[in-house]
Structure formats: structure tokens, C-alpha cells
């Protein structure tokens, strides 16, 4: 890998293109440390990339949306000779890219192909999870309450500032094991009360979702009752 950069054509500046925006999508290959050739920017995005440094220098607080709007306006004002030249360069770059991409794909081992496929699936699942969580938040889905153990742990947060997270977890676990039954029962009752409220809230929320046609967000199983905390769950 890497040798493809010096093959084919001398005009390879686009291989090291600057991302157009700070939200450029991260590839599975990036996570695996595999250097994948970049597809050339279209004429408009190449123009926007070239204009971006000067635009930000003059307008430090400009948003991505505003930058795109500004670039779009000025792109439309470009003379035909300039845009025609940029289109020709893009077409040439695209030809180079297709040949370099073939060389890149031929250089991948079977293990690398499997790793890329796996990471892509993981990234897609994580993206879908974030999307669903954002949707739940927007729709006001009630959050499942904490267990009795974590309710107790919340009362010990003040000691976290003086010790590491690992030490904190070990101390809280040890203190929980020493807690008198009467004290532990207090937290279990509190957890049960929160769970009872959660059950009512989630059922009401689900009825609302059904009413607006979002049955895909409704559970297929009833809410489980909180179980008494077992020590091995926190090891």
C-alpha cells in the first residue's frame, strides 16, 4: 500500500485533499489504519474547499450551513470558462481515481476485506442506534430507572473526586456488601417505586406512539420487575 500514489499521472494533488467540512464522514478503513484512495471532489466542492480558508479567516464564526450557502452563491457567479476548466480537471481526476481504486482493491488481503466488512457493519449499527436514541429523546420516551445498587452508588459520588474510577467502583461495591439489610431494603423499595412509575409512564408513552402510528417504537415484551442486586453483577 502507498505505492499507488506515485503511479499513473504526475497530477496527483487531489490525492491529499483537505476535507470540505469538519463533519467529513469517517471510513471503516480509517479505523483499521488502511489507507484508501480518496474520490476526487466534484467541481463545486473543490471550489468550496479552495474558498474555505479565506472565508473562515474573514468570518471566524461562520457555520457550515452559512459557508455552503456563500459558496453556492459565488459558484453560480463564476464565469463559464472557469467552471468548464474545473469540470475537465474533475473528469481527468476521476479517470485517475478509478484506475488507482482498482490497484488499491487488488492489494487488499482477504483478512482486510473481512475486517472492512465487519467494521462497516458495526459503524452502521452504531449510527442506527444513535439515530434511534435521538428519536426517543425527541419523542420524550421515559428513561428506565436505576437499580437499587446504582441508586446507592449515586450517594457516594463525592468520594470520586479523590480516587480513580476503578477504586471508586471497588469501594462502592465493598460498602454495598457491608450495608445492613434494613438499609439495602430502603434502596430496593426506592428502586421499586421508580420502576412502578416508569411502567405507567412507558405504557402511556407507548399508547401515544400507537396513536400517532409509530408502533415500531412499542415494546413487544412487558417491563421486567427489578431484581434484587447480586454482587457478581458488579464485578
From TrEMBL:
Does the record bear Calcium in its keywords?
no
Domain spans labelled HMG box: 37-105, 142-206
* UniProt-listed Pfam families: HMG_box, HMG_box_2
**Keyword DNA-binding belongs to the record:** yes
The record's annotation in SUPFAM superfamilies points to:
HMG-box (SSF47095)
Cellular component annotations (GO), alphabetically ordered: nucleus
Question: Which residue ranges does the Swiss-Prot or TrEMBL entry mark as DNA-binding?
Answer: 37-105, 142-206
Quote the protein name from its UniProt record.
HMG box domain-containing protein
Q: Which organism is it from?
A: Parnassius mnemosyne
Task: Show the taxonomic lineage.
Answer: Eukaryota, Metazoa, Ecdysozoa, Arthropoda, Hexapoda
Amino acid at each position: 500500500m502507498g505505492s499507488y500514489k506515485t503511479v499513473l499521472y504526475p497530477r496527483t494533488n487531489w490525492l491529499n485533499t483537505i476535507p470540505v467540512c469538519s463533519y467529513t464522514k469517517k471510513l471503516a478503513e480509517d479505523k483499521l489504519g488502511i489507507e484508501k484512495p480518496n474520490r476526487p471532489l466534484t467541481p463545486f466542492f473543490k471550489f468550496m474547499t479552495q474558498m474555505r480558508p479565506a472565508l473562515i479567516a474573514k468570518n471566524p464564526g461562520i457555520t457550515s450551513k452559512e459557508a455552503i450557502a456563500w459558496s453556492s452563491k459565488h459558484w453560480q457567479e463564476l464565469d463559464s470558462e472557469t467552471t468548464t476548466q474545473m469540470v475537465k480537471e474533475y473528469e481527468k481526476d476521476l479517470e485517475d481515481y478509478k484506475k488507482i481504486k482498482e490497484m488499491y482493491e487488488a492489494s487488499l488481503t482477504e483478512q482486510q476485506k473481512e475486517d472492512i466488512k465487519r467494521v462497516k457493519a458495526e459503524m452502521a449499527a452504531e449510527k442506527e442506534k444513535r439515530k434511534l436514541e435521538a428519536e426517543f429523546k425527541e419523542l420524550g420516551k421515559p428513561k428506565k430507572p436505576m437499580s437499587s445498587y446504582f441508586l446507592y452508588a449515586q450517594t457516594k459520588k463525592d468520594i470520586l473526586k479523590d480516587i480513580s474510577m476503578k477504586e471508586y467502583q471497588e469501594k462502592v461495591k465493598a460498602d454495598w456488601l457491608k450495608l445492613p439489610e434494613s438499609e439495602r431494603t430502603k434502596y430496593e423499595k426506592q428502586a421499586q417505586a421508580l420502576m412502578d412509575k416508569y411502567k405507567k409512564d412507558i405504557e402511556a408513552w407507548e399508547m401515544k406512539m400507537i396513536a400517532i402510528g409509530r408502533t415500531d417504537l412499542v415494546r413487544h415484551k412487558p417491563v421486567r420487575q427489578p431484581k434484587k442486586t447480586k454482587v457478581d453483577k458488579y464485578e
